[in-house]
Amino acid sequence: MKSRKYLLVAAAAVLVATASIKPAMAYFTDSHIAVGERTIKLGDSKLNPPEDSVSNMIKTVAITNTGDYEVFVRVKAIAPEGVKVTINKESKADWVLVGDYYYYAASEDVENNGTVLPVKETTKPLKLDIVEPTDENLKGQQFNVVIVQEATKVLYHENGKAFADWKLKINGEVED
Question: Which secondary-structure segment (H or E) carries 10?
Fold first, then answer.
């Protein structure tokens, strides 16, 4: 009697498995072919950060907005330990150091992350003074000062005032 129950359960399982083979095969073997193409534009601005070669231990950076939207820009200079990078007095009217970043702030509107960089416009040059290391082990050694530039789309408050959200991702979510 017990074996008969097991036989009935096994027969039911085989029946269910057999009935589901055809839909499963259709699901796993279905294919479609798409023809044509469509350009997708995320709408983010592209920046072109031309850098002059270092001359007299001054690195010059100017950023051009080649995208479709107005942006705020900021620049970070990464130097090896023992190498000091400071803003040149010629750039202090146009760039402001806040934390590790130099914000393009050609106006006094620094509390909102600087000045809006319109499309097809270029920032005024950021000149950075590079002080050679004083450590005897590093003196005379070659080194690089890496420039990292970032941009974020200009956002507007309800009152029309521009602001920047540096944590905003492309999809509109805020980064942790």
Answer: helix 2-29
d(CA 158, CA 170): 21
**Pairing of the two strands 71-78 and 155-156:** unpaired
Q: Dig out the tokens for 85 from the structure.
A: 């990078």
CB-count burial class (<10 Å; 0-12, 13-18, 19+) for 124: middle
Q: Which SS3 state, helix, strand or coil, does residue 170 take?
A: coil
Tell me the two tokens of residue 7: 């036989």
Phi, psi of 163, deg, nearest 5? -150, 165
Q: How far apart are CA 117 and CA 122, in angstroms?
A: 7
Give the separation between CA 52 and CA 50, rounded to whole angstroms: 7
Ordered per-residue pLDDT tens for the chain, 176 residues? 677 888 888 888 888 777 777 777 766 776 666 666 666 555 555 555 555 545 568 888 888 888 888 888 888 998 888 888 888 888 888 898 888 889 888 655 555 567 888 888 888 888 888 887 777 776 777 778 888 888 888 888 888 888 888 777 655 555 54
Q: Is 29 helix (H, G, I), strand (E, B) or coil?
A: helix
Question: Distance between CA atoms of 176 and 72, rounded to whole angstroms?
Answer: 20
What SS3 state is found at 32?
coil
